[in-house]
Amino acid sequence: MISIPPQLKDAGYRFLKILPKSKRPAESWKENNYAGDDAPLKSWIRNNQSQDRKNKITGEITHYEGIGNYALLCCDSSIIIEVDTSEMVEYSMAHPIISKTLRTRSGSKRGTHFYIHTDKAWTIPLMHPTLLDESGKRTYNVGHIKSGGSYCVGPSSVHPSGNSYELLNEGADIQYVPFKGIVDFYKDYIFARHKNEPDEKTVYKSPIGKKNSASYFGLSMDMFMPVGKLSTSGDEIIGSSRWHETSTGTNYRVNLQKGTWYCTHCETGNDAIAAYAIEKGIISCGEAKKNCLEGKWAEIYRAREADGWVNPDKESDMEIIGDLMVNLTKKDDDEPEQYEEILPFSKKEIPAHLLTVPGVLGEFSKYIDAISVRSQPQFNVQTALALGATVLQRHYCTDQKNYPSLNFINIAGTSMGKEKAYAAITNVLTKSKRADLIGPSSYTGAGGVYSALINYPSHITIIDELGLLLEGNKHQKNGLAIQTMRLLMSIWGKLDSSLVVEGYSDMKKIMKDGIKNIIPNDKMIINCPAVTMLGMTTAKTFFDSLNDGDVKSGYIPRMLVSEYRGPVPKAKKIDNVEVPDCVVKWIEEHSHNIPQDSPVITPEPHTIKISNGGWELLEKIEDSLIEKMNDPKSGETSTAIYGKTREMIMRLSLIIAVSKESEEILPEHIEWARDYIMFHTERLIERIGSSLSCSQLERIENDIIRKISESGEHGITDREIFQQCWSVRTLVKKQRKSVMETLEEDYDICKHKIDGFQKREAWVEKKYITKCRTVQLV
C-alpha cells in the first residue's frame, strides 16, 4: 500500500502525481502539485491508474497501469539529499545529524534519500572526485542535494524495477542542518562552481565580438541531437546524453528553435559552441555554465580549422585571433609548472618532521589524512594544532602566562584538499562530547563575536570563506567585517584578562537563564575569552587583501599561515576509519574534568612549567629574533612579524608538551615549535614582501611588472595585461595608459613589434630586445 508518512506531510514539501511503476510525472508538475492531504493526491495513490503515453517522434505507445506513485517536490528550506552509491550512504551516515534524520532507501536498493530542513538552499550535483563515467571524460555522478524545483519519488512508491522505496527509520523526525554545514560536509564531492548560489542566467561572451558565436564557427544545435529513444515536450527534443551514461534515457534536451541544450544529469546547459567544446574534450558537460569558455577560444578556433572550417572574416579578425592564439604558439618546454605560474617564489619544501605533530595530536593528523580525498599533510598538521589549541586554550597556560589560543590560516587553490578541517574537528569533538567547543563558522560583526563568547567563552571558529572577511577589511567598506577581524585579533591577547561588552544594546536579550542575574550592572564582562580561528582561503584572495597597516597593526603577526605551493595532489581512496580512541581519551582527560565554561567565571588554569633547558633555548631564540629585527635589511614588515614570533613559539610548545603528556615544557617541544613557527613565518615574510603594498596603485604596478617579467622574450600585449591582471580592470583606459607610461620610465621595459604568429605589439624587458624577433621600436 502506498502512503505518505506524516512527517513528510508537515515538512513543507509539495507532492506530485507520478505514473505507476515509474519516475515520470503524470501531469505538468509545475502547475499541478499538492499538499499531502489534498483529495486528488489521496485518490491517486489509493486507486488503480491506467494511462497511455505516446512518443511524439516514434509514435510508440507506452502503457502505465497500477497504483499511482507520488514524489516530493523540494523547496529552498525543505530539501532532499539523494545519494546513489553505498559509499556515499556510508559517508552520509557519518554525519552526526544527517544520520538521525528521516530517510528512505531508493527502489534501486543502492541509494538513500535523506530529508532535511535547512535555510536557503540550491540544487547541487554530487560528483566523485576521481572515478570517471563510461565516456572517460567526466567524473561520476554519485547523487544530488535537491532543492527548489527538484523532486524525488516518495517512500512506499514502486520503482520501475518492481522494488518499493523503503522507509528506513519510520519514527524519526526530519532534522535541521544549516545549508553551509551541508556544503562543508560534502565539499569533496562538490565542484567549486556549485558552492555559491548560482546566477539566474547562464551566458558567456565571445571575444571574437560576434553576436552569435555558434553561427560564426558554423555550428548549430542540429549537430548535437540527443541519442537513443527520442520523445518531445513542447519545443524540446528529449533523449539520452551524447557525453555520458544515463539510467533514464531522458537526461538531455535540445531546443532547436532557441539553439540551446540542457543536461538534467549535470544541471548544465548552453548553446552549440559549448556542445562542440564538450565533443572535442575542451570542457566537460558539468562545466558548461557561465563563462565556461573563458580562456578556451583559441582551442575552439584551432579545432574548427582542423575540421576544415574556413573563417570568412579571418582577415578582419586576425588582431583578436592572434592574441587568443598566442599562448598556443609556445613550445611545451617553455611552459612553467602550474605552481610557478601562481607562486613565483621559493619552492623550499616543508621539512619532513613538520608534516606530523608530536604526541597524540599526530594520531589526529593521520585520521584527517585517512578521511580526505587528497592528502595534504601540512593542512592536517594545522588542523590538529587547532584542535589542541581549542581543547586547552582557556584551561592551560605556561608559568609565564602563555595560553595556547592561536589563529591558523590554510592557503591553497580550490580542490587542493584544504577543506576537510570542519568535518574532522566536528567528528572528534562530537564523539568526545565536547561539541560545545564548536563555534559559528561566521560572525555578523563584533556583536556576533560577543554573542558567541557569551554562550561559548571557549570555542573554535572554522571559516571556510575567510576571503570574504579579508576582502571587506581590505576595502574598508564592510564595517561588520572590519569589526569582526579587529575583535578576533584583540581576543588573542586577552586570555589572562577580561573582555568588556559595551555599546551593544541587544546583549541584554542574550543574558538570560541566570547569566543576567549574575551581572550587577549593564556591562557584560567575559573573563578569559578564548577563540581559536582556523580559516581557509586562496592565495590570491589572501595576499591581494593585505596592506602595510595589516602588518603594523599586529593583524598578520597573529596568524600562523600555511601555504601550499605545489600542484594539485592526486586523489586517493577514502578510508572508513573511526576517530582514534587515544584522541578521544586525550580530549576527555584535558577538558571533562574542568567545570562548565561560563563567561562570568574566571577559570583556574593548569600551569605547565618551562624547564631550565627550555629557558636556555628560549633565550637563544630571543637573541636570534632580536638580531633579525635589528637587521637594517629586514624592514618594517619583518620586524613587525618577528615581534610576535617568540610568543607564538611559547604557545605552540605548550600544545606540543600536553600532546606528549609531559608535565614540563622541554627543549624538544620548544625546538619543534620553533622550527614550525620559523619555517612558516619566513615563508610568509618572503611571500608578502613580494606582494605587499601600501596603495592600490603600487599593487597594480607590481602586478603588471610581474606579468611582463613572466612573459619573457615573448612579451605581453595590452589586451593580455587587461585579461590576466584583475587589478588593472579597476582602471579606465586613460588611467591604464598613464600607468604604462610611468612604468616605462621607471623600469627597463619597452613596447616592441615582434614577429611570430603575426606581428604584434608587446611589452618586454629590454634585456630581451636582442633575443626576440623585433621589427621596430614603437
Summarize the structure.
This protein is 35% helix and 19% strand. It has 778 residues and is an alpha+beta fold.
Whole-angstrom Rg: 30 Å
C-alpha termini separation: 83 Å
Q: How many strand units?
A: 29
Q: Outline the low-pLDDT stretches.
A: 133-138, 199-211, 315-347, 504-521, 771-778
Write structural notes for this entry.
The chain is of the alpha+beta class and 778 residues long. Helix content is 35%, strand content 19%. The protein has 27 helices and 29 strands. Strands 5, 6, 7, 8, 9, 11 and 12 form a seven-stranded mixed β-sheet that branches. A hairpin with a 6-residue loop joins β2 (48-54) and β3. α10 crosses α11, α14 crosses α15 and α21 packs antiparallel against α22 (635-642). The longest helix is centred in the C-terminal third of the chain and has 25 residues, at 667-691. It is flat. It starts with 5 loop residues before the first helix and ends with a strand.
Detail the topology: elements first, then pairings.
Blueprint (H helix, E strand, L loop, with lengths): L5 H4 L4 E5 L20 H8 L1 E7 L6 E7 L1 E5 L4 E6 L2 H8 L9 E3 L6 E6 L6 E9 L6 E8 L4 E3 L12 E2 L7 E2 L2 H7 L27 H4 L10 E7 L2 E5 L11 E4 L4 E4 L4 E4 H8 L17 H10 L7 H12 L12 H5 L17 H11 L6 H16 L3 E3 L8 E5 L9 H11 L14 H10 L2 E6 L2 H10 L3 H13 L6 E4 L5 H4 L4 H4 L5 E4 L2 E8 L1 H6 L3 H5 L6 E5 L17 H11 L14 E5 L1 H19 L4 H8 L2 H15 L4 E2 L1 H25 L4 H16 L6 H7 L8 H14 L2 E6 L5 E6 L8 E4 L1
Parallel strand pairs: 7-12, 18-25, 19-23, 19-24, 20-23, 25-26
Antiparallel strand pairs: 1-4, 2-3, 4-10, 5-7, 5-9, 6-7, 6-11, 8-9, 13-14, 14-15, 15-16, 16-17, 21-22, 27-28, 27-29
